[in-house]
Fold:
Amino acid sequence: MKLQGKLALYNTFSKVLMIVVASLIVPSLIDKIAMEHTDRRLKLKEEQALRIMNRIGIEKFIANDKDSSFASYNLLKEEFITLEPTGPETPRIVYYNAKRDIENQVVEYRILDYYFQHEGQHYLLEIGRSLGAIQERHAMLRSLAFILLVSIAVVTVFTDIFFARLILKPLKRIIDTKLRDVHHPATFNFTPISTSTDDFVYLDRSINEMMRLIQAAFEKEREFMSNVAHELLTPISILQNRFENILSEENLPEHLTLKLIESQKTLSRLKNVIKSLLLISQIENDQFLKTDKTDLEALVKEVAEEIEDRLEAKNISLKMDMVRPVPILEGNRPLLFTMFFNLINNAIKYNSENGSIFIQGLATEEGYRIDVQDTGTGIPAEALPELFNRFSRASNRENHDSYGLGLPIVQTIARFHDIQIKVNSEKGKGTTFSLLVPNPKAIS
Amino acid sequence: MNVLIVEDEKGLSKEIETFLKKEHFLTDTAFTGAEASEKIAVNLYDFVLLDLGLPDYEGFDLLKEAKKSGSDASFIILTAREAVQDKVQGLNMGADDYLAKPFSLLELLSRMKAINRRKFGVKSTDITLGDFVISLENRAVSCNGNPVNLTKKEFDLLTYLLLHKNRVLTRLQLTEHIWGNMLEDDYDSNYIDVHIKNLRKKMGQHGSTDWLETVRGIGYRINA
Structure:
């Protein structure tokens, strides 16, 4: 899952959680606030009532008659006020909820009771406010709060996503330009990614530092290979020329001549191993250009002609059938030549006498596929994964007196040209090497 | 013909010298760039065999210097630095040929002969061999006016043997010549034999091919 997705998911989750928690807490909080508010209002009314009583005298409300009392309701019975004499009580204020039966109508009220003494007489002032009226207001407040909460949550989820995307943009740029698009250390771009996020600057800097180390190591290896090649090829050069000079000496006994020829062959083998390794290393180090527009059909034909003598030596027939249009590949022609040469040469080498080779070109969905199929001995399944490894036993089949760098070279060249290579083999029936040239770049 | 061998590797320089002397060249050696520069300035050479990897000199600089001072020697670059751009650069700077180490001395000799043919504008490059006439210029073989059709490889093989006539060429030397830089991993191959067999068959239809001798266990030779 992408970091951006995770952040969005986390944000949404935390917001939903917040709403749930809020909807659990807020109603009781609102109730409490509303109740306090109501109590304050009742207190105000009580003070108002007392002021009126002080001004016009309590007797206006209640006669000196001990049983009389005063009561006043508003029309919808949302509020009431009563005053009545009581027995001796300590003066105090009490708030509570209670039901009152007023004119045969039971209504729940929030009530303030005020006990006080006036001219030796104890009174109780009771002020009530209908809870129905209060609760109606609560419900409205609650739904208002809920709507506000949800809309804030929704809006912030979107702004969070937008912001996360904005903030993570440099990360994507770092991954694209510094990691994904880098196919070879030599092509690495050291330009810093512009970002105000310190973590990304740090990441960018670290990648650059790492790449500098890798580049240095590559450069070292390239230099090393070049030096090794020089150091090894020079003595081989001396030996080869010395053998040639000895061979041309007159009166050289025949048995020594034959030994010398054997030595020449051994030396040639050594030379080819070194040159093959050097070639692989040079390709891997990107020391070849890919600028030749190569007609693959013409190329394969040329290889087939070049290799004619080998076919003849084993009396092997070669058939070619390439569906047109055969792609024109922008690559390194000599290398591609070597690749096909090695493949077809292999098909001859491991073919049986009087066998055949079939080269087939097919346009498939993934690209243009070229199969090189032989009727040889085949390769055991367990040896297939090892086939392209340098100096592996599998690439050195059937005690052929060689170090079999042919296939590793094929693979290196294929990889260099983004060509996929696959092998299918059946013991006793033959082997097919398939080259897939993906999305051929047609060049007019 | 005067040849200057510019090669810091003494062993290699000595082998090249031995070989060229036997081929009746007059040879001179230089082991450093400075020495070579001095000798090129003072002496007249027909050929300069130039190693690119000199300890004190960049081989290309030596070539540039010599060309600037008007030396008309033919330069053949010898190098172990087998890089494509080296070859292109060398030829662009006026070198006449380029050989990657290790190379065969016979290959070197045939390149030198080819340069000579070009340089002195040899008009008739026709060589007579028994009943046959071989035209190097037209890459054609004929017998009493009748053309003999040879493949490219067969022709290369014939002319290489002819160039080094009266000398036994081993199968390996012939293979290296006609396969050039292909990295071969078949050492006991008899592909050369296939070509020789075809040569004998094709030419045999027109005349005698007794001049082509098989030297048992070693290789082939043209006696002329």
